[in-house]
Amino acid sequence: MTRQSPTMIEVDRHQITYFRDGRTDGPTLVLSHSLGACSQMWRPQVAKFEAAFNVVRFDFPGHGDSSAAAEGITIEDLGRLTLAVCDRLGIDRFHFGGLSLGGMVGLWLGRYAAERIDRLVLSNTAARIADTRLLVERLQTIERDGLSSIEQSVMAGWLTSDFQSAHHEATAEISSMFCRTTAAGYVNIARAVCCFDFERELRSIKVPTLVLGGEHDRATPPEWNSHIAERVGNGRYHSLNAAHLSNVEAAEAWNDAVAEFLNAPVV
C-alpha cells in the first residue's frame, strides 16, 4: 500500500494536482470534489478505502493547487479532463465517486464514458440546478467583494451548525480549503454548473449507480438526488444525516454505504 504526496501533471494545457493512495494492484476509485473545495475533502474516504482500492483524487482547474479554470469551461470539459488524468495514470476502468460538481461530472461520465466506469457514486448533486439565483448572486458578490465575501454563506450550506460547533478542527480545515480556491476558478466553474442540464439523459445511464443525499442539504436537496436514482437505469438512493458535504459530516455512514455498494455483485 502506498501513500503519495501531491503530484502535478500537465493535462489538456492545465497543470493538475493529483493524489494516488492505497493499493497499486487494487481496483481504482476516482473521487471528484465539490465546487469551491479540492481533493483534500476526501481524506475521510482515503482512510477508509486505501486498504482495498487504488484511490485517485485530483483538483479541478482553479481549485486546490491546480492551474486556472478558463472562461467557458463546461461539465463536459471536466469529464474529459477526468478521463485524460486517468489515461495519463494508465487507468482504463474505474469506480467513480463525485459530490456536487463532481457528481455532475459523474453523470456525464456515466452517459458518455460508460465503458470506463464500473460503478458510479453520485453524492449531493443534481441533474439540473432548478433555481440558479443563489449561485448567480454569489458570483455577483465575488465580482464585487472577492471570494472571501461568500465564505460564511458557503460554510453554512456545506456543514450544519451542530457539526461546526462540535468539530472545530474539521470545520477550520474545510474553511481553509475553500479559501484556497481562486475567484476565477469558482466563478468560471460555477457558470458551468448553472448551465448544466442532464435531465433528458438520465435514463440513458445504465451503469450501476448509488446516489447519496443529505437530509439537511439546501444546495442540492435530497429530492433532487432521489430523483436521479429513480431515473437512471440501475440506481439506488441512500439518505444521510448531513448537509452538503455529507462525506465529511456523515463520513462513517457515507463510507459504509459506498463500501457495501462497491463490493456488491453486479446485477
Automatic annotation (TrEMBL):
<dbReference type="InterPro" id="IPR029058">
    <property type="entry name" value="AB_hydrolase_fold"/>
</dbReference>
<dbReference type="Pfam" id="PF08386">
    <property type="entry name" value="Abhydrolase_4"/>
</dbReference>
<keyword id="KW-0378">Hydrolase</keyword>
<protein>
    <submittedName>
        <fullName>3-oxoadipate enol-lactonase 2</fullName>
        <ecNumber>3.1.1.24</ecNumber>
    </submittedName>
</protein>
<dbReference type="Pfam" id="PF00561">
    <property type="entry name" value="Abhydrolase_1"/>
</dbReference>
<dbReference type="InterPro" id="IPR013595">
    <property type="entry name" value="Pept_S33_TAP-like_C"/>
</dbReference>
<feature type="domain" description="AB hydrolase-1">
    <location>
        <begin position="27"/>
        <end position="125"/>
    </location>
</feature>
<dbReference type="InterPro" id="IPR050266">
    <property type="entry name" value="AB_hydrolase_sf"/>
</dbReference>
<feature type="domain" description="Peptidase S33 tripeptidyl aminopeptidase-like C-terminal">
    <location>
        <begin position="206"/>
        <end position="264"/>
    </location>
</feature>
<dbReference type="InterPro" id="IPR000073">
    <property type="entry name" value="AB_hydrolase_1"/>
</dbReference>
<dbReference type="GO" id="GO:0047570">
    <property type="term" value="F:3-oxoadipate enol-lactonase activity"/>
</dbReference>
